[in-house]
Amino acid sequence: MNHFDLTLAAVVALLVVCALFLLRLPRFSQSDPAPGIGVPRMLGAVGALAIAISLLPRTFVAPAVSDAEEAELHWHLDYEDAWKEAIKSDKPIFIFVTAVTDTNARYCEKAVFDLPGVQTELKRYVRVKLYTDWVPDTRLSREESQRRGERNQRWCQAILSDYTEPACVVIKPAADGPFENGVPKGSVLAKHLGIIRDVPEFIGLLRNANHKAPRG
């Protein structure tokens, strides 16, 4: 498990404990009188359990590829670094709009991006993750990490008028510079907003966008 998995697992455990507390469980002696449970406590317990159950599939998703295969899929954390590689390799850029606290984004990473068919298509792109809360780069101070997260959020709002998280954007970067008016410069070839539920459709989106990308 990475630290995202551990955090989600801890949240699930706390929600279950909270539900048991609201239900006044466990009872350690059958001779104890059964305590009364009011409607508010019952509703709170049901709500906590419902949230815990909804988080389970996003917390414990088995990897679809080996660690060696996953290691081949490198992600930039800064757009300008991705732009430099894209211009050098003449590839389009795949932007994954995410957040450290976004469980839907973690689901996409585990249940979709790790699939061999998806990885085959993603390798045709230069990949970058734009975190919109704070950038998990150990080389950055906490203040700089948050500042870049806020900057990434402004970029995503400029690129996507109907911006949401998570989101996937494929762009053909401009050759004369990474930015224009303070935002990434290039042509948007494809986009997908929200959690990825239809994997074949997503693979088709990646293929079509790559074919549309002008070369040279």
Key traits:
2 domains; two-stranded antiparallel ribbon; 14% strand; 216 residues; alpha+beta; elongated; Glutaredoxin; 4-stranded mixed sheet
How are the SSEs placed, and which strands pair?
Layout: H1 3-22, H2 39-59, H3 67-71, H4 79-89, E1 93-98, H5 103-113, H6 116-122, E2 126-131, H7 142-159, E3 167-173, E4 179-180, E5 183-184, E6 186-193, H8 199-212
Parallel strand pairs: 1-2
Antiparallel strand pairs: 1-3, 3-6, 4-5
Helix pairs in contact: 1-2, 2-5, 6-8
Question: What's the multimeric state?
Answer: single chain
Structurally, the number of domains stands at 2
Over the alpha carbons, how many angstroms does the gyration radius reach? 21 Å
CATH topology of the largest domain: Glutaredoxin
Helical segment tally?
8
Mean pLDDT: 84
Strand segment count: 6
